[in-house]
Amino acid sequence: MKKLYYTYQMIHKLGQSIAGQIKESGFNPDVIVAIGSGGFIPARILRTYLGKPILAVGIAYYDLNDKPMDYPRKVQWIEEAEKKLAGKRILLVDEVDDSRVTLEYCTNELLAYHPEALAVAVLHDKRKEKRGKFPPGVSKVFVGETLGDVWIVYPWDALDIDAQDRNAALAHGAGI
Ligand code: G4P
Ligand code: MG
Question: Using CB atoms within 10 A as the burial measure, which of 9, 29, 70, 81 is most buried?
Fold first, then answer.
């Protein structure tokens, strides 16, 4: 699969663009929920622009014996979630909408707390057939950039950040 590299600078600008879309839409979240680990840095960038607190959740595709599963499970969740989320406007953040299975799972879990509204923000949406779907309770999905079915290489996965930046420059042109 084709690899597409991103720098922190590019990720930050995608975050800024998503925050702009959110403000323009009139959706004013009370709280950001970050899906770890890929959603942590995007959520933190959105916090800079939206100024809202972040709660974190952890989801895994491995069972307790490290065996892969078809569906995700919670490995970390929000303490007193009902109290923190009932009646609130939630912005759920992840880095990529790939199969949509994680996002379907997390949106359903969050809707069970009866928030006033639930919207989703992702840096990237992949144009492909999705295994998961958004429940009707999701009012809006904000996307930084829509891509084909490529493999996105995020800067936080880089062991050599200078090589990451060079690869991103090659792929996206000198304008970064
Ligand atoms: P989705 O529901 O949000 O679409 O995600 P899905 O469960 O399909 O994704 C499974 C895992 O694969 C997720 O990581 C997701 O971030 C990762 N993934 C999917 N496509 C890409 C890609 O193009 N590039 C990278 N770097 N990762 C991708 P995870 O298991 O949640 O791990 P992590 O978030 O802790 O990294
Ligand atoms: Mg992820």
Answer: 29
Residues 94 and 141: beta-carbon distance below 8 Å: no
Which helix (H) or strand (E) element contains residue 92?
strand 89-97
Collapsed DSSP state (helix, strand, coil) of residue 131: coil
**For residue 175, is pLDDT > 70?**
no
Quote the ligand 1 centre to 66 CA distance (angstroms). 17
Task: Return residues with CB closer than 5 A to ligand 2 (ion).
Answer: 38
Strands 68-76 and 54-62: antiparallel
| pLDDT at residue 90 greater than cutoff 80 | yes
| 162 has catalytic annotation | no
Amino acid code (one letter) for 169: A
Given 3.40.718.10, 3.40.50.2020, 3.40.50.1100, 3.90.550.60, which CATH number is that of 3-172? 3.40.50.2020
Instruction: Quote the CA–CA distance of 43 and 121 in Å, as a whole number.
Output: 9
Q: What is the pLDDT of residues 24-54, one digit of tens each?
A: 999 999 999 999 999 999 999 999 999 999 9
Residues 53-72 pLDDT 10s = 999 999 998 888 888 898 89
- Name the catalytic one among 94, 97, 98, 165: 98
